Structure formats: C-alpha cells, structure tokens
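Standup, Tuesday
Yesterday: got the pipeline producing structure tokens again.
Today: sanity-check two examples.
Blockers: none.

Example 1:
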Amino acid sequence: MSLYTSDNPVFASFSFYAALLGAKTLLMALLTARQRFRKMVSAFANPEDAKMNKGKIKTDDDVERVRRAHLNDLENILPFLIIAFVYVGTGPSLGCAKFLFRLFTAARFMHTLVYAVFVIPQPARAFAFFGGIIANLYMIYAIVTSYALAF
C-alpha cells in the first residue's frame, strides 16, 4: 500500500481535514467582504471599491479583526498542510493521526469563532491558537525522530 493514496486511511483522513481547512481559509475572504459591506460607509481600503460602493476609504476595526484572523489562518494552516503531509509519510497510527488532524482543525475553527465571529476575550483565542501549535509541534517531533537516522 502506498502512503499517499486513498487506500491509506491516514492519507484519506489528512485529505479530508486539509479540504475542510482549505474551504475555511477561502471562506474567510467572504467573511471579510461581509464585514466590509455591513460597514458600507466606512470600510473600504481601496479607492475604486469605495467609489463603486459610495463609501469612504477608511479602515474599520471589525473588518481589520476579520482580516487579521484570515492572515492568522494563512500563517498557521499552510505550515500545517506541509507538516501533516510529511507526517503521513512516517506511517503514523490512524488513531494518533486523526486525533492530531482533528485537534488542529478544531483549533483553527475555534480561533476564528472566538476572534472574528463572536469576540470572546483572552485566553479563549490563545487556547485555540496553542491547540494548533501543539498538534504541529508533535508532528514535527515525529517527523524528525522518524528520519533522524537517515542523516
């Protein structure tokens, strides 16, 4: 059995959670647009957008919060996809891999909810952020220890 085919349940699980995270990242752009249009009179950063929508060029705290959450996704989800893909190559157990993929995915969804949708004070965002970091760090450890003998 090849590690990178749908015959491998670990790779199939990775593919499923990667798709969820990809969709979530794409939807963040729509959430940003929704915030901009909700604040029609003050939330356009580009002159052409403001002119087209009869708004003003100005930043808005709510729009910027969603943009920061989106940027945070890009800073965390893209490394996860690379790390988890390499992790699949170590031949981990299905249970452990699913747990890590689910932990990371849940953490990213929670991060968005507590940071950009229902703003909840700290430490809610920190807990969500560190859940994803812990999953990534564990996978990095597993990768390094699996391939350390190769060097």
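Example 2:
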Amino acid sequence: MHDLLRQLGRAIIRDEDKEPGNRSRLCDAMEVCEVLENSTGTKAVEVISLNIFEIKTNVKVRHGAFSNMHNVRILKIYYFDDIRPNEFLQVCDNNIGGNKFKLFVPQDLDSYLSNKLRYFQWDLYPLKWLPSNFIPENLVELVLRGSRVEKLWNNHRVVVCLIYLYYNRC
C-alpha cells in the first residue's frame, strides 16, 4: 500500500505543472537534475529530494540553480534512504555501491539557499563550508554524512531551532 500512495502522490505533483521547476515538490531524479543543470527552479518549489544513486549521468549544478527557489523548506540530497550512519562510512569507502556518476557543485554556491530551509541533508557535500549568506534561523535538522565541510559557515551564525545535527567526514 505504501508504494501505491507514493505513486499517487507523485502523480498528483506531476499534474501541478508540465515544467518540473514550477512544481511544489521535486522527487524524480531526472527532473531534479534537469532543474539544477538548467537553473529552471521557481518560487513554487518547496521540497527537493534527490537520491544520487538514481542519477544516470554526471550532473553539473549551474551557478545560481537555487537562486529563484526562495521557498524551499526541505532539501535532501542523499545516497540511500534507509542506511544507518555507521554503515554509511563503509558505503562511502566503497564508492557508494559502485555508482560512478557524480553531482558537481560550483564553488560559489554562496547565497543561493533558501532562508526558509528547515531540513537540510546533503550526503557527501563537496564544499568546505555552507553558504555564508545562508541564514539558518529556521533550520531544524542538518545532516551532512560524509561531507567535506571543515566549518559550517564562513562567519558566525546563530542557529535557534536546530534540534538535530549529524556530521561525519569520509
């Protein structure tokens, strides 16, 4: 029954608009990649969920890909959904189950994350810090499994609502 509900929900979202960047939720890997590569996301986007394991080619996130998505509340870029944290490092060491495709992010991602973000997960986040202009005042959960982050922000930030922080490096 769970799979049928998921399929129904995704069908309803697909019917919102022909263009993926105008939908409230982006969950299909190919559509998420298309929006990030072509920078076609709009303020309608509230949720982005991308399982990197499902991408079929290298994806180059365009500079400013997140700039028009001011209402994103959930950003989840992950490998596998049900993997335990201690198992993730083993998977990470094994090149994520053999997946040879990658998500390339510009070094100047700064200032392009929504300040409405409440949940932020990015497995293997490739940059050394989170965007300096990102204001995490609404952030409740931050998950950076296997990331390259050395410092959360390049300057001081107060995180008021943060309940859960998970971070480990590969």
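Quick observation on example 2: The CA atoms of residues 63 and 106 lie 6 Å apart. The first strand starts at residue 25 and ends at 26.
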